TrEMBL record:
<keyword id="KW-0472">Membrane</keyword>
<dbReference type="Pfam" id="PF14808">
    <property type="entry name" value="TMEM164"/>
</dbReference>
<feature type="transmembrane region" description="Helical">
    <location>
        <begin position="77"/>
        <end position="95"/>
    </location>
</feature>
<feature type="transmembrane region" description="Helical">
    <location>
        <begin position="47"/>
        <end position="65"/>
    </location>
</feature>
<protein>
    <submittedName>
        <fullName>TIGR02206 family membrane protein</fullName>
    </submittedName>
</protein>
<feature type="transmembrane region" description="Helical">
    <location>
        <begin position="17"/>
        <end position="35"/>
    </location>
</feature>
<keyword id="KW-0812">Transmembrane</keyword>
<feature type="transmembrane region" description="Helical">
    <location>
        <begin position="102"/>
        <end position="124"/>
    </location>
</feature>
<keyword id="KW-1133">Transmembrane helix</keyword>
<feature type="transmembrane region" description="Helical">
    <location>
        <begin position="210"/>
        <end position="230"/>
    </location>
</feature>
<feature type="transmembrane region" description="Helical">
    <location>
        <begin position="171"/>
        <end position="190"/>
    </location>
</feature>
<feature type="transmembrane region" description="Helical">
    <location>
        <begin position="130"/>
        <end position="150"/>
    </location>
</feature>
<dbReference type="InterPro" id="IPR011737">
    <property type="entry name" value="CHP02206_TP0381"/>
</dbReference>
Amino acid sequence: MIAAITPQAFHPFSQQHYAALAVGAVVAAAFLLAGKRGEASRRRATLLLAFINFSVYPLSLAAWLSLDQEKAWDNLLPFHLCDVAAIAAGVALVTRRPLFCALTYFWGLAATIQGLITPALTVGFPAPPYMMFFVHHFAVVIAALYLPIITGWRPKLPMWRSPLEVMGWSVLYLFFAMTVNKLLGSNFAFATHPPSNPSLIDHLGPWPWYLFSMLGLATVFYLLLALPFVGRKR
């Protein structure tokens, strides 16, 4: 029987944080380069990236279950936005369905990347949840870059259509997360309270007002992310 792991604490903006970001950046560059090398290489890179996105939840669950500490619903159920974004990314890479591509792009670069900058993570290297946290978040962010750069995906025209569509799904997700939080006492979408580690939410006001600030900021981010495609053909 494998002994449970007692992890060390994770501290944002530490060497273990910067090391994870550096490794993730190298992996992101490798996927983009592989996608540019030709049809066969692109196909392999696409399928591998889709497989990773589909796999991150069960692997993350196994990582948290390996710890010798009390388990929280937040770490056991796939209801964080980044969990939903990973599933959307896997579907987008395999099917190229416009909705899933849009969700991956806007959620990945407006929200999931925030998790890499200010990780809501309590355990550090070499604990499995530390590893899977960065694999999970980088998988979504890489997919968000891969879709427009490698596959040629473009948002809908006019430029505000895709941001507003994704905003609508974001509001629905927030209501879903708040309902689950009410039932389970969890903190999905950080809709109950901000994460314990420092984050952008700390500067958006007290609860529940920061929820409205989050939605407003998301709208701004989505519109800004659509700007690079203005004037470009689909």
